[in-house]
Amino acid sequence: MTSDVYVASGDNQGDSNLNIRTTTLEGSGIWFKVKKGLRGLWGTRQTEDTQTDRELYIRTTIRELVIYVFFIATLCILTFGMTSSTHYYYTKVMQELFVDAQFPDTKNTFKGMTTMQDFWRFSEGPLMDGLYWETWYNQKNVSEEDLGYIYYENKLLGVPRIRQLKVRNGSCEVHPDFQEEITACYDSYAKAKEDTSPFGSENGTAWVYHTEDELDGSSHWGLLDYTYSGGGYYQDLLDTKTKSLAIIKNLKENLWLDRGTRVVLVDFTVYNANINLFCVVRLVVEFPATGGAVPSYQFRTVKLLRYVTTYDYFLMGCEVLYMLFILYYIVEEVLEIRKNKCSYFKSVWNCLDVLVILLSIVAFSFNIYRTITVDSLLGKLLDQPLTYPDFEFLGFWQMQYNNMVAIVVFFAWIKIFKYISFNRTMTQLQSTLSRCSKDIAGFAVMFFIIFLAYAQLGYLVFGTQVKDFSTFQESIFTQFRIILGDFDFHALEAANRVLGPIFFLTYVFFVFFVLLNMFLAIINDTYSEVKAEISMQKSEFEISDYIKRGYNKVLEKLSLKKDRIRDIQDAIQTADLNQDRHLDWEEWRLDLKMRGIPDAEIEAVFAKYDQDGDMILNENEQKKLKADLERQKVIFNYLFIQHCSKPRSKGAVSHVSCNDSANESDDDDEDRPISSKNFVSRDDFQILARRVDRMEHSIGSIVSKIDAVIVKLEAMERAKLKRRETMGKLLDNITEDERNGRSDDELRREQMERLVREELERWDSDASIASTGRRGNRPQSGRSTASSSASSNRVRVPGSHGNTSSA
């Protein structure tokens, strides 16, 4: 039974101290509360004293973990809101249109391009057909407002741009033996070797060089590992297929591409309003100094307009919440650095915290920059629809933003180990890696010596014939693939029938069978040692114990409330002594008082249902009380059933019995067998009960003996005080007689003998006091015995004028 009654127990002792303490804190109360609140909000395991208090350590860890769970949940909502499967399908559709489409007169595609002639075939065929959809499938022309849409759904923003970079003649030297036959030499691409002079008709942008600043362009990292600048010779196409095709034919007829051409880039951007996605397309054809053509492509599907739909604004709220979390963690890290100084950076987890915060700040800054720049670009595009809008820079950095957020999410998930690694099971991985790190580092030196030796051997032997060994980097990756079972043995054998098989067999034997298994053996041995040590360690108070204890406390409170409901229900039936169907206050209070219920709760429940205030519960009021009790009883029974139906691990302990039933009495509970396997058997319980009874009896005997000793000590102390008082009086009388001139040796001797005799009688009296105290175990009997003994012994001092002195 729940009631909103709070009883203030205790007395007024110590009120003055309380007032003094309150007065002392009033001056600094606000600052104290602020510091306490900040400490409770930003307190961590590194700022609190958790070394000696294991429970504080667990409590602080749980609080940190709960806050971090909300942080990572917000981060996951943001990241999953940035991308979806729609991005993939949009990219796939655009790739199939431009990269996989076949040329008109051949079955070649953009991916299979090998010559300059193939580039012109692509430009006049799949490129024009993909950019300009001017007719429907029934060969009828589309309307004017529908022009400029790819697949009739994707708006072509502005016009496409074709740009090339060239190197000048004479950028390389011809060997003297061939200088007479070979007069021209065009080296591989380099920024310093670019050809910037006009050529051809010299009357258009396609024939005049423009710098990167003039074009406001960006560099490009090609497939051949060359970084091409953002300048060059460019030609913008127009808004119709006919006009653009004429431009392409003019460039082809005037040899716009020649021996000095090293790369051609085709850039354009499309926007799909149905899904609010941009696709920034770049088609690249590199013409190396060896001759031929190497095609590559980039399709960056990004969401540059972030806030359009209701869900987008929900994500904006999550972004604000995420930045509040970042501010919270910034303050937390500052407090930790302030306390731990340079030792703060010795922990890997702390460095990871700083990395996550820095990446989040950079990502948030780019988010603001992206929003402002996109609005500016779109405004310029609307004013000049026949210009080329350079979304390449935004598309590139949007992808870097996505990559950055992905890295933040990865490290954020890894950071969870920081909060759960204190558990015995969770520490196995961390302890294993930390302990075997030195062994792995020493082994890694030997491993990479052999590994890199094989990589260089493969590059030098097979690099001229096998693509997987064409560069040193490719050779390294290929060897990792061989370890995982992905290799092309026939290509090695075809490249060199002798060294190919030898290279493969020796590499697999030494690296795969020997070194890799040594690496696994180091980890396995260390893991076995760590597991054995952890199993022998003393069990500490862990988070599971903390949660179980809190859970059991809640269930115990529910059990007490359940018993209280049962007591009140019984009181309604038995408290009506006069059987008048009216329950007055005295009957109610006396019955519940006998059941151990506090007066405050008795009064609160009675006042709650005594609506007319006559201090009597009539039938209607009793019915309402019974209904409320029954409803709460059903709720508690449901909670108990939920608790008892949950499977518990072996050895789990609960302080609340699941065999209690609201419909059965306590006597029935005694006869009912225990059916749950989570509790001890009845025999074991009886044995434990007998042990507890014997322990209580022994403790009671010890307590009674201690009481007897205390009584004896008190009696001896009182007798000692009486003797001291009597001896003081005797000495005073002797001194007075000497002062009055009545000193006599015989009389003094008699007085001394009498004094010794009285002392002996006092010792006998003490023995009787002790025996009486042991028999009665009552301090009063000891006091009465001492007083009677003292009153029975009186010393008559001669020369004291007939006065007696009591001893």
Automatic annotation (TrEMBL):
InterPro entries noted in UniProt: EF-hand-dom_pair, EF_Hand_1_Ca_BS, EF_hand_dom, PKD1_2_channel, PKD_2, Polycystin, Polycystin_dom
UniProt topology in membrane: Multi-pass membrane protein
UniProt KW Ribosomal protein keyword: no
Chain positions recorded as Ca(2+) binding sites: 610, 612, 614, 621
Membrane-spanning parts: 65-90, 313-331, 352-372, 401-420, 440-462, 502-523
EF-hand domain: residues covered: 563-598
SUPFAM superfamilies attached to this UniProt entry: EF-hand, Voltage-gated potassium channels
Family: Belongs to the polycystin family.
Protein name: EF-hand domain-containing protein
Native organism: Ciona intestinalis (Transparent sea squirt)
